[in-house]
TrEMBL record:
<dbReference type="Pfam" id="PF06823">
    <property type="entry name" value="DUF1236"/>
</dbReference>
<protein>
    <submittedName>
        <fullName>DUF1236 domain-containing protein</fullName>
    </submittedName>
</protein>
<keyword id="KW-0732">Signal</keyword>
<feature type="signal peptide">
    <location>
        <begin position="1"/>
        <end position="21"/>
    </location>
</feature>
<dbReference type="InterPro" id="IPR009642">
    <property type="entry name" value="DUF1236"/>
</dbReference>
C-alpha cells in the first residue's frame, strides 16, 4: 500500500510539472496579419523590448481591427505588433 501511494504521488507530481511547463500558443488568423501589414500607422516609442508577453502601458493607443474583437495592433519602435486589447499584452510581433 505504501508503495502504491508513493508511486501515485510521483506520477501526480510528474504530470503536474508537465502541465506547468506548457505554453499558450495563439493562432492568429491570416486576415488579421494581412490587415495589420497594410495599415499606415505612425510608430510610438516604447522603452524596453517589445516581445510576446510584453504588456503595453495605457499611454500606448491600441488600434482595433474590424470584425476581430480579440485582436488589436500598434506600431511600436517601428515594429508592427498584434495585441490582446483586453490585457494589452503583445501576442505576436509581425515585423
Amino acid at each position: 500500500m505504501k508503495t502504491l501511494v508513493i508511486s501515485a504521488a510521483a506520477l501526480f507530481l510528474s504530470l503536474g510539472g508537465a502541465a506547468v511547463a506548457q505554453t499558450t500558443t495563439v493562432v492568429v488568423p491570416g486576415e488579421v496579419r494581412t490587415y495589420v501589414e497594410k495599415q499606415e500607422t505612425p510608430s510610438v516609442t516604447f522603452e524596453g523590448d517589445v516581445a510576446v508577453g510584453t504588456a503595453l502601458p495605457d499611454t500606448v493607443e491600441i488600434h482595433t481591427i474590424p470584425d476581430q474583437p480579440d485582436y488589436g495592433y500598434v506600431v511600436v519602435n517601428k515594429k508592427r505588433v498584434l495585441v490582446n486589447p483586453k490585457t494589452r499584452t503583445v501576442i505576436e510581433v509581425v515585423q
